[in-house]
Each structure stands twice: as structure tokens, then as C-alpha cells.
Amino acid sequence: MDTPFAIEATDLVKTYGTGPTAVRALDHASLGIRRGRFTAIMGPSGSGKSTMMHAMAGLDTVDSGSILLGGVELVGMTERERTLLRRTRVGFIFQQYNLVPALTAEENIALPLRLAGQKVDKDWVRELTATLGIVDRLTHRPAELSGGQQQRVAVARALVTRPEVAFADEPTGALDSHSSRALLAFLRRAANEFGQTIVMVTHDASAAGHADRVEFLSDGRVVDGHDNPTAATVLASMARFDAAREEVAA
Ligand code: ADP
């Protein structure tokens, strides 16, 4: 059956540690990520955003629940199966760009394909790098690129395999406001023009305002979400949760 979701995460539970010091990072969290859309995940520090993202990306395991990524069940996979899945079906855009210093921009971009033993689609690389405005930087090594250019190389590398989902973890955290806006605009275009599914974890309301949808985590659960967020609607939702949490705590 065809589903509009690139990821369907259902009833995820994840506990770190045991006994009295155990922390339940995911407490029956469920979330659907729509295919071809740009989704932001927000929530206070410690609400489970990273744990949720790592689980959905096959980087880490959960105790129970189900995660369908492009219809494939991740829960119960072996480490090796998850590694293969990550190489071919998932892209990552980290705050630390993790570019290989000894390789040129072009070699960095092609690296995921080489690791997966796949051919480089030159037309796709040309389109990606042209859209990102780094065509004239492809022979440079990371040390010869600005922060914003390195980030764009990292984005091209994340999308070069045409992954089922590209995950971005606080991607604008280390960028100046101009580079941040450019990156967020590109993530939007990747969804709109290439049909790329994007999941971005952020604590920045204005960054979330670029997404098609925002989901909110609190205490290990997805507690709310809305379409077409703006910085203002995101801030209003967060203020509502803070008030509700304070009421519970009082
Ligand atoms: P967020 O990304 O929203 O800040 P996390 O997913 O990092 O939240 O963390 C959720 C909860 O799990 C927090 O209470 C955190 O302290 C705890 N946690 C995360 N990773 C670990 C770990 N490796 N060991 C123990 N506790 C952890």
C-alpha cells in the first residue's frame, strides 16, 4: 500500500541506563514524516529530539516500537543491516560538517557513493552543486572553503545518493545569519524541486519557520505539530507548552 509517509515511527520507547538512574528518552513517541516535505522537530533540551532522530536514521536502536523507513522496518535490524541502510537510503547534514580534510569538495561529495560502491551520477552532482552555488569550489579542499561553503558541500554530500530521507541536526548552529538563511532556503528547494524528504532537528524558531511542518517533542513524546509554520506560530506553540508544563509542575 502506498503511504504519504517516508517514515512512520510508532510507539517508540528508549530508556538509557537501569534502576533508579534510568532515563526514559522516548516514552511511546509516534511520528509520521511526509514524503517530499521539509519537517522540523523542536522541543526543549532533553525532550528526546536527538534520540528520536538517531533512531529514525538507523544510527541507534530503540527498546520497542516500529520504525518504517520507506516501508522497511528498522527495529530489529542488525548493526550491519543498519549500516548498509544508512549508506544507501539516509543522508546526514551535521552541524560539524565532517568533511574529509584530505579530499577535495568534489571527492567529499562523491564519498557516500564510493562507500556504497555506486556510480557517480554526474548530471545530478552538477545540478546539486549548481543549485548550491559551489561549482567553482569543487577542486578545493575543506580548509580552503568558508564555513558556509563547507556546509553546502556537506549538504550536497548528504543528497548525492538521493536518500529516502535527509536528516539535518541543528544545521544552522554554526553559521552566520546570511549562510543560515541560504541553507534553509536550499533545504526548502530540495523538498519542493527534487521531492527530497528532509527532517531537521532545531531549537531555533526562525529556522523551523522555513519548514513545511513542525513537530514538537516534550518528555519523550510528540505532543503537537502544525503545517506551514512561521517563527511566530512556532514561538506561540512553544509558549503554550511552557505554560502547560509549568501548570503540571505547580
Ligand atoms: P534533546 O535532543 O531533545 O536534547 P536527547 O534525545 O539528547 O534530547 O535526550 C533525551 C534524554 O535522554 C535526556 O534526559 C538525556 O539526558 C538522556 N540521554 C540522551 N543520551 C543519553 C545517553 N547516551 N546516556 C544517558 N542518557 C542519555
Task: Give the SSE layout.
Layout: E1 5-16, E2 23-34, E3 38-42, H1 49-56, E4 64-69, E5 72-73, H2 79-89, E6 90-93, H3 105-115, H4 122-132, H5 147-159, E7 165-169, H6 177-194, E8 198-201, H7 205-208, E9 213-218, E10 221-227, H8 231-249
Parallel strand pairs: 3-8, 3-9, 6-7, 7-8
Antiparallel strand pairs: 1-2, 1-4, 4-5, 9-10
Helix pairs in contact: 3-5, 4-5
The protein binds adenosine-5'-diphosphate.
Adenosine-5'-diphosphate is lined by residues 16-17, 23, 25, 43, 45-51.
List its salient traits.
single chain; 250 residues; alpha/beta; Rossmann fold; six-stranded mixed sheet; four-stranded antiparallel sheet; 10 strands; globular; binds adenosine-5'-diphosphate
Explain what this protein looks like in three dimensions:
A hairpin with a 2-residue loop joins strand 4 (64-69) and strand 5 (72-73). It is built from eight helices and ten strands. It is an alpha/beta fold and 250 residues long. Adenosine-5'-diphosphate binds at residues 16-17, 23, 25, 43, 45-51.
Give a brief description.
With 250 residues, this protein is α/β, with parallel strands linked by helices.
The chain-level mean pLDDT equals 92
What percentage of amino acids are in beta strands? Answer: 25-35%
Q: Main beta sheet, described?
A: 6 strands, mixed
Q: What is the number of domains?
A: 1
Q: Could you say which small molecules are bound to this protein?
A: adenosine-5'-diphosphate
Per CATH, the superfamily is P-loop containing nucleotide triphosphate hydrolases
The CATH topology name reads Rossmann fold
User: What is the helix fraction of residues, given as a range?
Assistant: 25-40%
Poorly predicted regions are none
So, CATH architecture? 3-Layer(aba) Sandwich
Separation, N- and C-terminal Cα atoms:
47 Å
Helix count equals: 8
